[in-house]
Amino acid sequence: MSIFNINEGNRPPKSTSRRSANTNRETSSRVFVYAGKTGFGHEHGVVGRIQRGTLRLGADQNAGQLVFDMARFEADSDAARKSVGLHGSTDLSTRQKVNANMRGQDVLNIRKYPTAIFTIESSRLLEEKSQRGFPQYRLDGKFTLHGVTQPVRIIADAEPREGWLHLRGGFVMLQSSYGITPFSKAFGAVGITDRLKILGDLWIAGPQGVTATIPETQAR
Q: N or C: which end of the chain has fewer CB within 10 A?
C-alpha cells in the first residue's frame, strides 16, 4: 500500500513515508471548486477535503472510492482562490457569510448530507498522452452529492515528480443535477452559476498500478 494525497499547490510532499503522509494529511488532501457569478455576484474559489479513500490506477473494475468531508469545504481562502485562477483576497466577514450559505440547508445541507462520494469503477491508462506530454488515466464512476448519484468521467494526467506520481484532472457539474438550487438573492440580481468546475491535484507515492490509501482525517 502507498499513500494517496491531494496536495495544495504544485509541490510534492516532503517525504514518501507513511508516517510523514499521515502527519501532513490535514493540509495536503484537497480538491478545488470554481463557482462563477451571476448578475452582481462574485466568483468564488472553494477548497475541499478528502476524508478517506482508495485508488487503484490501471484497474478495469473496482478502482476505488473517495469520500469528501462536506463540513470542511471552505470558500474564498487565498489558497482556494489562487488555485482556481482568481486574484485578490476576500475579507473574513464576507467569507463567513459565503461559507454559511454554502453549507446551509438551502445549498449543501451538510447536516443531512455530511459526505459526498466518488465511487471509481475503473481507472484505465489511455494510449494518448496529455498536452503536457504525460500519461493519462480515464476515471469512470459515480459521484453522489446531496443524496443524488450521477455518472462522472475524469481525464487526469500523471506526471512523475521526485518519486511521486502527480495526478491532475477535473470535471464540470451542474448543481441542479444533484438537486441543489444555486445560491441567489435580491430576486436573482446576485448569485452564482449552476455550473461548477471541480479540480483535483493528487499525489500518489510508489509505483503506478498500486493501491493507494487515504487515511481518515481527524476532525479539528
A: C
Residue 119 DSSP code: E
| 77 pLDDT higher than 70 | yes
pTM: 0.78
Grid-cell match 498500478, residue found: 209
Intra-chain end-to-end CA distance of the chain, in Å: 26
If residue 47 lies in a helix (H) or strand (E), which one and from where to where?
A: strand 44-56
Q: Grid coordinates in use for 53?
A: 479513500
For residue 9, the enclosing domain spans: 2-214
Is residue 220 packed enough to be buried (19+ CB in 10 Å), middle (13-18) or exposed (0-12)? exposed
CB contact at 8 A, 201 and 32:
yes
Which residues are CB-contacts of 131 (< 8 A; sequence separation ≥ 6)? none
Rounded CA-CA distance 87/105 in Å is 29
Other CB atoms closer than 10 Å to residue 66's CB: what's the count?
A: 25
- H/E stretch holding 158: strand 148-161
Strand partners, 214: 53
Q: What is the CATH number of the domain that holds 80?
A: 2.40.128.110
Number of domains in the chain: 1
Cβ burial of 52 (10 Å; 0-12, 13-18, 19+) is middle
114 pLDDT band (50/70/90 cuts)?
very high
- Joined grid coordinates for residue 30: 484537497
The model's confidence at residue 38, banded by pLDDT at 50, 70 and 90, is confident
